[in-house]
Write a structure and sequence with these properties.
Blueprint (H helix, E strand, L loop, with lengths): L1 E7 L12 E6 L7 E10 L2 H8 L9 E2 L4 E8 L11 E4 L12 E5 L3 E3 L6 H5 L2 H14 L12 E5 L4 H12 L3 E5 L3 H10 L3 E3 L5 H7 L5 E6 L3 H11 E9 L18 E4 L4 H5 L6 H14 L7 E8 L1 H12 L6 E7 L2
Parallel strand pairs: 9-10, 9-12, 10-11, 12-13, 13-14, 15-16
Antiparallel strand pairs: 1-2, 1-4, 3-5, 3-7, 3-16, 5-6, 6-8
């Protein structure tokens, strides 16, 4: 049996008619702990265009991108325990395996969650990668308690209106943190405030002065979702003694860790594919956290961050989605429905 997929054979700009091409591949059979999923919707992330740009030369077999899925389980491996055919699921997958821009997709059950019942497949597909990144950043890397409580602690989110920022604001608000998000445009500031940010500051301005105008001299936690090198000096300035910083964007040059020494500040990286790529002992934690967030969604505590739906998954719409992402002006998440038949 064959399935349709959208692949990249060589790196081409989004305006090129062959940026993405349709191809037909064998429907993959699940391994021992795999789910075979019929893809109903996918969402775009910066990792998509970064992986597209990494393609060198011309590939004999097209590279399939895509790491945000909502769909239906159609078959399971012999050692699968968590799901069965017919279950509706959502997940981000692994960059060490083919992506989800295809009619069917394989994924290890330990990084898959139950799809929120109250959301469509499209609304659900907007969530997994950014949810995992935000959750692990806050509750594992920054070691913030995941239990709601009364709390005066302050979190600065640099890049609040993007996909990860949109989830981080909601989760931080849920556990009682005071959230300050950076956003430069009116539409971005409005979005961050709607999601629960107490204040918005302009990341193009002097962040230290912007915070002081709010009566804040220093913050307990910082989640940096943008140019880590650029914001490193100011983060070192505005973090409290013994505070914690987490970043998700690779540096182009080594950051000066000495700037954090006198304050005994903790710094951590977050890469949500770590557990899946290395098959860590705790990779099933992503299954559990996706289920927890699905419950929060169904309770009306967390909302989908889908802001644009570009139609079915085809070469034209996929190129348009990459173009929107590359603009750097996304608010929330872009979503496409399943492969056009």
């Amino acid at each position: 049996m064959m399935m349709k997929a959208l692949g990249v054979s060589q790196f081409l700009p989004v305006g090129h008619p062959d940026c993405f091409s349709e191809c037909y591949l064998s429907i993959p059979s699940p391994g021992r702990r795999d789910l075979q999923v019929q893809v109903r919707a996918v969402s775009m992330n910066p990792i998509d265009f970064k992986m597209r740009a990494s393609v060198q030369g011309r590939l004999m077999t097209p590279k399939i991108l895509g790491w945000d899925v909502a769909g239906v389980v159609t078959a399971v491996g012999e050692h699968v325990e968590l799901f069965q055919p017919g279950d509706e699921v959502y997940y981000a997958g692994s960059i060490s395996r083919p992506g989800c821009n295809s009619a069917y997709h394989l994924v290890d059950e330990r990084i898959v969650g139950r799809k929120p019942q109250s959301l469509s497949f499209e609304e659900s597909a907007a969530l997994p990668l950014t949810t995992i990144t935000a959750w692990e950043s806050l509750f594992e890397r920054l070691n913030i308690s995941a239990a709601p409580r009364s709390n005066d602690a302050t979190l600065l989110v640099i890049g609040g209106a993007g996909g990860v920022g949109s989830m981080a604001i909601q989760l931080a608000k849920y556990v009682g943190l005071r959230v300050i998000a950076t956003a430069s445009r009116e539409v971005s500031r409005k979005w961050c405030t709607q999601l629960g940010a107490s204040h918005c500051v302009n990341h193009y301005g002097d962040l230290k002065s912007e915070l002081k105008r709010l009566g804040i001299n220093a913050v307990d936690y910082i989640l940096c979702l943008n140019d880590t090198n650029h914001y490193w000096p100011i983060m070192a300035e505005v973090i409290k003694p013994q505070g914690k910083i987490c970043a998700v964007v690779s540096t182009k040059e080594p950051p000066n860790l000495n700037l954090l020494k006198n304050k005994s500040v903790t710094f951590a990286w977050e890469f949500m594919f770590t557990k899946a790529v290395y098959e860590t002992d705790d990779m099933i934690s992503q299954h559990h956290l996706l289920n927890q967030v699905a419950e929060l969604v169904d309770q009306g505590i967390v909302r989908s961050t889908m802001t644009e739906h570009l139609g079915p998954l085809n070469a034209v719409n996929l190129a348009q989605a990459h173009e929107r992402l590359e603009s750097g002006k996304m608010v929330g998440k872009l979503v496409l429905s399943g492969v056009e038949s």
